[in-house]
Amino acid sequence: MIVVISAPSGAGKTTIIKELLKLKPEYKFSVSATTREKRNEEQHGVDYYFIGKNEFEKKIKADEFIEFEEVHGNLYGTLVKELETFKNSRDVIVLDVDVKGAMSVKSRFQDSLLIYIDVPKEELLNRLTNRKTEDGSVIKKRLERIETEEKFKNKFEYIVDNSSQTKIEEAAIKIKNIIEGNKK
After folding, report:
1. How far is the CA of 148 from the CAs of 7, 57, 71, 138, 143, in angstroms?
2. pTM of the prediction?
């Protein structure tokens, strides 16, 4: 079962996925590739495959991605080999991709489950500013992209709230229950 989780920057997607994987350690996480700089707390091969732009573009030409997208000036993509590993298993595979990537995965794997994490725009601005991992120009790009992402929200089967009234654990439990309720 392929589960795609998408959200705007600052919505808590990565934190929720980590919590989900604590609740359900048998779930597998599909590690995406990116050209963006690694943050201090991130690990290559665990959070992302951090690769250079030239290598990423070679992989695009070699058709090694199920989906890829340029987001905020960086490339992100899901490698075919990541999903091929689980193709014939009964595992739950969790993907962390942007909304356009989610649409690409859904077109290729129609039975995939799409979950969107929603947070009010004003709250996203506060979160992006307070986490202090990007400068003002990057934050501005991320905020501009929210409008695009919001247009895709209703194409997802489920929308999970992660506003300040929701605890990370609650959001992760909601997602776990959605997944378990959709298992075949």
Report:
1. 11, 24, 11, 16, 10
2. 0.85
